[in-house]
């Protein structure tokens, strides 16, 4: 077998992976030079338990704060209608008109497919026309670019 003068291998086998390096910033313990330490041997800090008297005093203080009657909130006077133009936001539909519209929608949905009115065709046609128009504009620019490129190449 012939050996390469740089790497020492001839390329028929994969080279041995390099040894693992330690990374002290990430906390990895995969390095070869770190002492092995079991999880049971790691020093752990025990949490300090709170004093039961302190807990009892805090609970009593919270309960006393809840039992104190508070002053009833002051009611704000009703807002005065402004004299600005009343039709800026538009008029609300009456309850009867809303009920009629809901009944008509319910009747249309629950009706058999033969009795249902088809949705308007204008919105669908508008969407189709917009899509066709965008496609035509894109095709125009693509074809013009191709013609320009070919005229520069062969022209």
Structure write-up:
The protein has 155 residues and is mostly helical. Helices cover 43% and strands 0% of the residues. The chain has 3 helices and no strands. It is flat and about 90 Å long. The two termini are 58 Å apart. The model has no long low-confidence stretch (mean pLDDT 75).
Q: What fraction strand?
A: under 5%
How would the global form be characterised?
flat
Largest sheet report: none
What is the radius of gyration? 41 Å
What's the helix count?
3
Structural class: mainly alpha
Detail the poorly predicted runs: none
In N-to-C order, the SSE pattern is: HHH
Number of strands: 0
Distance between the termini: 58 Å
Mean pLDDT: 75
- In helices, the fraction of residues equals 40-55%
Main attributes of the structure:
155 residues; flat
Topology:
Blueprint: H1 52-67, H2 95-110, H3 121-154
Give a quick summary of the entry.
This protein has helices at 52-67, 95-110, 121-154. With 155 residues, it is an all-alpha fold. The two termini are 58 Å apart.
């Amino acid at each position: 077998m012939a050996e390469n003068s740089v790497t020492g291998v001839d390329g028929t086998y994969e080279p041995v992976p390099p040894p693992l390096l330690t990374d002290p910033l990430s906390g990895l313990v995969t390095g070869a030079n770190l002492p092995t330490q079991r999880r049971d041997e790691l020093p752990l800090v025990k949490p300090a338990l709170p004093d039961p008297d302190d807990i009892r005093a805090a609970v009593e203080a919270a309960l006393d704060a809840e039992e104190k009657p508070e002053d009833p909130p002051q009611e704000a006077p009703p807002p005065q209608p402004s004299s600005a133009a009343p039709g800026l936001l538009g008029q609300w539909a009456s309850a009867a008109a809303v009920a009629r519209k809901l009944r008509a929608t319910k009747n249309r949905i629950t009706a058999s497919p033969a009795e249902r009115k088809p949705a308007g065709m204008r919105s669908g046609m508008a969407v189709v026309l917009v899509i066709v128009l965008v496609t035509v504009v894109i095709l125009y620019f693509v074809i013009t670019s191709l013609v320009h490129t070919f005229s520069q190449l062969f022209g």
